[in-house]
Amino acid sequence: MSRTGRAVLDPATGRLLARLKDTDQSGVDDAVARADTALRGEWADTSPSRRGDLLRNLGDLLRAEREVFAELERSNAGKPTARALGEVDFAARVLDWFAAAARHPVGETHPSGPGMRAYTDRVPVGVVAAVAPNNYPLLLAVWKIAAALAYGNTVVVKPAPETPLSLRRLVDRAGELLPEGVLTGVYGGAGTGRLLCGHPAVGMVSFTGSTAAGRDVARRCADGLKPVSLELGGKSPVVVFRDADLDAAARAVVTGFTGNTGQMCVAASRLVVDRAVHGEFVDRVAKLAAGLRVGRPADPATDLGPLISRAAADRAAEVVEEAAAKGARVVLPPDATGVRHDLDGGFHVHPVILDEAPSDSRAWREEIFGPVLSVAAFDTDAEALALAHDTAYGLSASVWTSDADRAEHFGRNLRAGMVWVNTWGDTEETVSVSGMGQSGYGRELGLHAVEGYTRPRAVWVAHRPGR
Predict the structure, then answer these.
(1) pTM of the model
(2) Fewer Cβ within 10 Å of end Cβ, the chain: N or C?
(3) Catalytic residues
């Protein structure tokens, strides 16, 4: 193991896994140059069907090395084994989907007079800088890589500095399957990302991460009029009415705020519940959440692994303590001092429920990226909608009711890029997703991903009629 470079840790123990040097300017230049050369050379001459074959080969690679990639996600991102395996499987399905999408028809032929043919098509944006987050290191990077390659781009991927190991292996293994330079990797923190944003040969930046970092990406890319896709933070509400299936809703809320230990941009971190069932429903949620096991990721009985870093665990505890000081009732754990979970020197926390969280508290307003649920009660439909919208974010929202009219009303009026009615969290590779407001813009997955990774072009062809 190298003795220099950025420390890469196991968040379950704090143990050093590796050291990896940040890619400097010359390294970024080299990676982008290789991607640009491939873009203008062999990859430009690769047919859509052949690109599809290569993407399927990448999917087969993930399936063949499923346990290897899952182990890297477990050790480097603290994911319980079953969750890590499921994410590798999802990534393989995404590659399969975009392998087929590479051959989907695009463009239109327009009516024109004699001697002229007019049509539109789509062309690659060029070298795509794919900047991935630390909560789903492999999966969300593959969302970007698969779409970009399917539509004829080349990719320079930068994993989060905390979680580079699975992406480093993917890049290394893909080098044996793809033409030289089609998929390259760079490593490091914000500094490396800024080098990508400013590089003149990068045609687009696809970024997933915090809203603050996304603003910085957008500003830096604006100087070069460089398109960006931003999948950013969230503070998503779950609205539960008295006529809902309360058992199903309670299970969804617990999954929504504790899944991946709360490290999800779509995390259901705000519960907006009908006052008529407020106390009963919060008790149901608390009972279910209390039964979850915080433990070692390798243990099959573990439900919640660690947060990604000590700083993340510290911040979660601080937010809970601040909300309690402002008057929130800490339902779970019994007292605010019990947020941290001492296990193996790792960065573990307990699930937390903050009832009547003050609207000016960070717990209600900010994305925490930890298993913390803030609760508010409502009396009317209008108040429920206002509480759901009491955020600058707009990534996802969920509503639970047996009233068909109310379901349609909230389904139409909830201001979020993903809306779930009597369900939560459904995501498929065939369905395009994005956010609103401070949650960003741009489409991932599905048919609409083509809009971000290509640019429309209008073509007129003059010819001599009658020959």
Answers:
(1) 0.96
(2) C
(3) 231
